[in-house]
Design brief:
Layout lengths: L8 H12 L12 E4 L2 E4 L2 E5 L12 H14 L14 H14 L3 E5 L2 H12 L5 E5 L4 H9 L3 E5 L4 H9 L7 E6 L1 E2 L4 E2 L2 H9 L4 E6 L14 H4 L8 E5 L9 E5 L7 H4 L1 H4 L6 H14 L3 H21 L2 E2 L8 E6 L2 H13 L2 E2 L1 E3 L9 E6 L6 H18 L4
Helix pairs in contact: 2-11, 3-11, 4-5, 6-7, 12-14, 13-14
The chain binds 4'-deoxy-4'-aminopyridoxal-5'-phosphate.
Length: 401
C-alpha cells in the first residue's frame, strides 16, 4: 500500500531493526516519578538524571513551586487566548519585567516556547529581499524560522569566522541581513567565538545579530545572561532569544532587545499572535525563577565544578568527547555508530544513569552521541557515581579498555 506515510518506511524499518536486537527504545522513556532535579524513578529504578536541561536545578525550587501554585489558585489553569487578545495577564507582564531586569534591556517579549520565539523572530524580521545568515549546525527552530519566512538563507561552516566573513562579503551591500548565532551549540556543547564573529559581521553593512542563548542562560557571564555577556559583546547583539525550558526550569520562550521599534513585533509576529499564551502558573514560576537566577552565584560555581570534573573523568577513561575541555554544562560522548550508542545508552540506564541519545538529523551528519548535561544540584557523590557507571558501561560495551 502506498500513501502519504510511505516516505517514512525506511525510518520505520531502521527503527524496527534496532529494536529487534533487543535494546530498549531510547525515544520512549517514561519518568514514572521525578524526585528532584537530579533523580527520577524509571521502571522502578532510582535513576540519576544526566540528560535534562535543568542546568540550575530550578524545577523543585520551593519559591518557584509556591509561585506556580498561587497563580493556579488566583488565575486558573489557562488563559484560553492569544497574548494580543485576552491572553495577557499581569503575570505575563511581570515575567517580561523580570526578563528586562535580568538582561538589562528595554524590551522583552514572552512566547509560548523557545521554538516559537526563534520561529517568530527570524520569520518576522527577515522578509522578502532580506538575508538570514546562519551557522550550519543551528538548532531546528532556527532552520524552521528560516523556512517560515521569505528571506534568502545563507549557511556558513559551524563556528567558522572566516566562512561567515566570506559569505557576508558575497551579499549585496544594500540588502538587510540578519546573522543568527548560538552561544552554546547544544549537540557538542561547544561555544561560539562571538567576539571574532561580531568583528567579522561589523565589517559588512546592514547586518543585525540575533543570538540564541538557550543553553547559556543562568550560568555564563557575571549576570548569567549568556555566552555573549561572558565574552563581552553585549553592545553588539541586537536580539537575544532564550527559553524557560532549560535553566529557568519551566516552559516558554522569549526575545529581549533594545531596538526602539521592538514592540511592533507584538502585532506582526505570527507565532506570537496566533497561539495561546502561557498559563498563569507557568509565567509565575518563570518570573520567580528568573529573579532567583540573578543571585545564583553558588549554583553557577557548583555547575562548572561538576562539568569540569565529568569532562576530565570521562576523558581520562578514554572516551572521545565533543570538546577538548568543558566549555559548557553539556558534555557529548562521541560514539562510532548507532548500535554501539544505543547499547551504551542502555547499559547506563540499567546502571541507573539517564543520558540523552542523539543522532542525525539532530546531530551533524554521521554523528552519534550520548549527551550528558549537568545540573548545579548534582552532588559530588552523584558525579562520582556517574563516572563509575560510565566506566562500567563503557567496559561492558567495549568502547573503552
Ligand atoms: N534554541 C535552542 C538552541 C534549543 O536547544 C532549544 C531547545 N532544545 C530551543 C531553542 C527551543 O526551546 P524550547 O524548548 O523552549 O522550545
Amino acid at each position: 500500500m502506498t500513501d502519504l506515510f510511505s516516505k517514512f518506511d525506511a525510518l520505520i524499518a531502521e527503527r524496527q531493526a534496532l529494536l529487534d536486537t533487543g535494546v530498549r527504545d531510547p525515544f520512549a522513556i517514561v519518568m514514572d516519578e521525578v524526585k528532584s532535579p537530579t533523580l527520577a524513578i524509571i521502571q522502578g529504578k532510582p535513576t540519576i538524571l544526566l540528560g535534562t536541561y535543568n542546568y540550575m536545578g530550578m524545577t523543585f525550587d520551593p519559591d518557584v513551586v509556591a509561585a506556580g501554585k498561587k497563580a493556579l489558585d488566583d488565575f486558573g489553569a489557562g488563559t484560553t487566548g492569544s497574548r494580543v487578545l485576552n491572553g495577557t495577564y499581569q503575570g505575563h507582564k511581570e515575567c517580561e519585567e523580570a526578563l528586562k531586569e535580568f538582561y538589562g534591556t528595554e524590551h522583552a517579549m514572552v512566547f509560548s516556547t523557545g521554538y516559537q520565539a526563534n520561529l517568530g523572530m527570524i520569520s518576522t524580521i527577515a522578509g522578502k529581499g532580506d538575508y538570514v545568515i546562519l551557522d550550519a549546525d543551528s538548532h531546528a527552530s532556527i532552520y524552521d524560522g528560516c523556512a517560515l519566512g521569505n528571506a534568502e538563507i545563507v549557511r556558513f561552516r559551524h563556528n567558522s569566522v572566516e566562512d561567515l566573513d566570506k559569505r557576508l562579503g558575497r551579499l549585496p551591500a544594500d540588502a538587510q541581513k540578519l546573522v543568527v548565532l548560538e552561544g552554546v551549540y547544544s549537540m557538542l556543547g561547544d561555544i561560539a567565538p562571538l567576539p571574532e564573529m561580531v568583528a567579522a559581521v561589523r565589517k559588512h553593512p546592514n547586518c543585525m545579530i540575533l543570538v540564541d542563548e538557550a543553553h547559556g542562560m543562568g550560568f555564563f557571564g557575571p549576570n548569567g545572561r549568556g555566552v555573549y555577556e561572558e565574552l563581552g559583546v553585549e553592545k553588539d547583539i541586537d536580539f537575544v532569544v532564550g527559553t524557560f525550558s532549560k535553566s529557568v526550569g519551566t516552559v516558554g520562550g522569549f526575545c529581549v532587545s533594545n531596538h526602539p521599534k521592538f514592540e511592533v513585533l507584538r502585532l506582526v509576529c505570527r507565532p506570537y499572535v496566533f497561539t495561546a499564551s502561557l498559563p498563569p502558573s507557568v509565567v509565575a514560576t518563570a518570573a520567580t525563577s528568573i529573579r532567583k537566577l540573578m543571585h545564583a552565584g553558588d549554583k553557577r560555581t557548583h555547575l562548572w565544578k561538576n562539568s569540569k570534573r565529568l569532562h576530565a573523568g570521562l576523558r581520562e577513561m578514554g572516551f572521545t568527547l565533543g570538546t577538548e575541555t568543558a566549555q559548557s554544562a553539556i558534555i557529548a560522548v562521541m560514539l562510532p555508530d548507532q548500535e554501539i550508542t544505543v547499547r551504551m545508552w542502555q547499559a547506563l540506564l540499567e546502571l541507573g544513569v539517564y543520558v540523552n541519545m542523539a543522532r542525525p538529523p539532530a546531530t551533524p551528519a554521521g554523528t552519534f552521541l550520548l549527551r550528558c548535561s549537568l545540573c548545579a544540584e548534582h552532588s559530588d557523590e552523584q558525579v562520582g557515581d556517574i563516572l563509575e557507571r560510565f566506566r562500567a558501561a563503557g567496559q561492558a560495551v567495549g568502547c573503552i579498555g
